[in-house]
Amino acid sequence: MPSPCRASLLIVALLAGGCDQMRNDPRGHPLPETPPLVSTVLSPVRADPRAADYQNNAFQVSNGQLYYHWMNCTGCHSEGGGGIGPSLMDVNWRYGSTMEDVVQSISNGRPNGMPAFGGKMTAAQIWQTAAYVRSLSQHVPQSIRSGRSEGLSVGEPSTLRDPHPYRAVTPKQDEATVK
Amino acid sequence: MRRLAPLVALLALGGCHGQQAVLGGGGRDDALFGGLWQIFLIVTIVFYLVVLAGLTWAVLRRREGGEAVVRTTFYIWVGVVSLTLVGLSIASWLVDRTMNRAAHTGLTVEITAHQWWWDVRYISPGHPDQTLRTSNELHLPVGVPVQVILNSADVIHSFWIPNISGKQDLIPGRNNDIVITPTRVGIYRSQCAEYCGLQHAHMAFDVTIEPLATFQQWWGDGLLPARAPATPEQKAGYAYVTTRECATCHNISGTPATGKVAPDLTHFASRATIGAGTFPMNRGHLYAWLADPQRAKPGNKMPEIGLEPDQLHAVAAYLESLK
User: Fold this and answer.
1) To probe the interface with A, which of B248, B249, B307, B311 has the most A CB atoms within 10 Å?
2) Are B266 and B322 in contact, with CB atoms under 8 Å apart?
3) Comparing C-alpha atoms, which of A100, A75, A94 is closest to residue A85?
């Protein structure tokens, strides 16, 4: 006759067998949250002669800034600090930080939430946006960046602003706002 | 003065007729502004002549008179100029006050200026479902005081319908307003009156002043969703416009195109112009605009899409059907 202790172990083991059914996995194997940095998993994109034209031109970068706001990139990436989406102010990016890689990311989207804008924006707009995104992390010469945004904004010019993390307010201020 | 009269009349003739008459003629406050304008004109002409006469006198008879004469003349001159300037300021202030006193308004319109087009919203207080959004056109009922709320999305612009007196700046981050009362039925042209960049000259819109019933009819029609595409070509255009680049920025009510950063296209073909008063609405200009907007109006925010010929035909056919 089995002891009560052994019986309970048996029951737990039986229950654990049902755990697999509860796994919510609509896409098969989910991609790891932080895949290795680019080029080891993805084949490197071919260098594009247009890259230099876009990222070394203040007009293109400031237009990119306009689209960055119009297309609601701020919704996930904030003003570069990240939030729902990853930060755009650090140096190494999951899917590559060259112009070509960023254009690919914007055009075709990336796993875990980045939507595809190819066909929704023209190629030139995507290149401009990529140039601006790269300027957030100082991949682009800072003299190119416009101090004045194309849209209306209050506060310091972006070229004078310290790159700061997404959470700009302290918890105390947060409470005050709620009240 | 009598000799000057024809000259003045000649100057004024420039603004007499047409869609864009600088001296008004279609608004309630025209007489006030016209009077103010005439006062300023006459005063400045008189002073111009006095200054010329004084200069001539000084050149011809420079050695006569002593310091006392110069001093007396100087004091008199300063006094006259100061008094006149004060008088002109008071006149200007009085006219301005009179215009702003029209507190009872029958209609509120919100206009947001962009580089280089106008976003127009008709507000019906208490009935948000009656809010009508349109772009680059303004319909107003005749004889009803209209409050126009003015804002800007980028730089300073200025709202001015020359035929209806009154002008007010649109300043980013601030709500300005102006009350105008159109008194004459017609189609006028409004023009941005503050230099706002490359295409400032091409930042205009048509103002249709119509009887109240016609206006209400127009508002009601404007609230209807866009017409469904009928021909195969229009359907192909609909498919492109609502799924590709166009829909990202433009709104067409009743379709998946819900962009908010560019002019509303719901009843695009019912407007008289393309590109904020840049071109008359016709097939040729529509094709030119769609094929290469940067050639049609350099610097505007619409990018070159690079439409293939069959796509161009389809998109144009669909847009033309949006009456």
Assistant:
1) B248
2) yes
3) A75
